[in-house]
């Protein structure tokens, strides 16, 4: 199975979604092959030496990540993939996926917590800006997806309270980071060395 991961950036400094993509692509033993499509600058140092193909179509000048290269690249290459994962919201990658993939190959959206209603009260002005984008584009991206993935039932239910309209096919999936291969005793020893007051 060949899957395309669409993500604004694969920069490790971007946090969770970038690390999730790296982890998912590492499951080659299960017959899974992954490639990544980003709006990164192809000369970015963090793209060097990655053990999977990365198609960097930047650089882009905005956090939204608009580039006219994205939709044509997807249209040209979509037949090489069995499906796609849109990682995150509020950037051009999702709208480009909707425009180029809807009705052609399956795609799913992984919001990575970006639909939590907490942001509505914490950043009301930003929420108004997102509401405008939601009504004009992002809602269609999620509605058109085969699934919208959540990491828990609570996250799924909270996402339904963020905007006045929503319609998507939700699916709750387990989600976690790769754990280092160390023994429990070794891990405990290292932990207590770092925090001796907690021992016992």
How would you describe this protein?
It is a single chain. The protein has 200 residues and is α/β, with parallel strands linked by helices. It has a single domain (2-198), classed as Rossmann fold, CATH 3.40.50. Helix content is 36%, strand content 16%. The chain has seven helices and seven strands; from the N terminus they run βαββαβαβααβαβα. It has helices at residues 16-25, 70-77, 92-101, 118-122, 124-144, 153-159, 184-194, and strands spanning 2-7, 33-38, 54-56, 83-87, 107-110, 147-150, 170-172. The chain has a seven-stranded parallel sheet, with helices on both faces. Helix 6 (153-159) links the parallel strand 6 (147-150) and strand 7. Helix 2 packs parallel to helix 3 (92-101). The longest helix has 21 residues, at 124-144. The radius of gyration is 19 Å and the shape is globular. The relative contact order is 0.12. The model has no long low-confidence stretch (mean pLDDT 90).
Quick take:
This protein has 200 residues and is an alpha/beta fold. It has helices at residues 16-25, 70-77, 92-101, 118-122, 124-144, 153-159, 184-194; strands at 2-7, 33-38, 54-56, 83-87, 107-110, 147-150, 170-172. The protein has one domain (2-198): Glycogen Phosphorylase B (Rossmann fold, 3-Layer(aba) Sandwich), CATH 3.40.50.2000.
């Amino acid at each position: 199975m060949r899957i395309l991961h669409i993500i604004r950036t694969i920069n490790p400094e971007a946090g969770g979604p970038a690390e999730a993509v790296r982890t998912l692509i590492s499951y080659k033993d299960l017959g899974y092959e992954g490639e990544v499509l980003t709006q990164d600058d192809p000369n970015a140092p963090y793209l060097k030496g990655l053990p999977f193909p990365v198609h960097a179509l930047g650089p882009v000048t905005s956090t939204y990540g608009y580039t006219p290269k994205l939709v044509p690249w997807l249209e040209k290459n979509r037949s090489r993939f069995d499906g796609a994962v849109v990682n995150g919201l509020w950037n051009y990658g999702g709208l480009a996926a909707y425009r180029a993939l809807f009705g052609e190959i399956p795609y799913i959206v992984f919001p990575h917590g970006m639909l939590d209603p907490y942001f509505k009260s914490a950043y009301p002005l930003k929420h108004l800006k997102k509401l405008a984008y939601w009504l004009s584009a992002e809602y269609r991206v999620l509605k058109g997806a085969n699934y919208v993935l959540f990491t828990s039932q609570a996250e799924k239910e909270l996402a339904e309270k963020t905007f006045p309209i929503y319609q998507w096919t939700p699916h709750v999936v387990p989600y976690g980071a790769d754990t280092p291969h160390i023994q429990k005793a070794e891990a405990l020893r290292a932990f207590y060395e770092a925090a001796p007051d907690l021992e016992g």
